[in-house]
Amino acid sequence: MAKPTSIDDYLANVPEDRRTALESLRAQIHALLPGCEECISYSMPAFRWRGQVIAGFQATAKGCSYYPFSGSTLASLASELSAYSQTKSAVHFSPEKGLPKALVKKLLAARKAEILG
Length: 117
Description:
This protein is α+β, with helices and mostly antiparallel strands.
C-alpha cells in the first residue's frame, strides 16, 4: 500500500469503527486549534501549528492512538491519562469511547506550551 499523502487518504483505508473515532478526533483538534495545518508525519495523520507538529493519530490493530509528538507531554499529564493504556509516545484509546474533548484540550495545551517554550 502506498504511503498516504493526506489525512483523507489515510482514513480511506481504516476500518469504519476506527475511522469514525479518528474523524471525531480530527474535528476536535480543528475546533480546539483553529488554523492548524494537516500533514503527514512519520506516515501518520498529524497537525502542524506554528511550524511544528503538535498532534497526530493512528488506527491500530486493536483501536486508536493519539501522539503528541513530544517526549514529555504525556508525562506532564500522567494523572489525567492514568485510565488509558500508553507508551512513552502515545495514548491508546478504544474507538467506542474515543478521547474526551476536555482531555484533547489538555493534551494540545501542554504541547502548545512546549512549542512556545
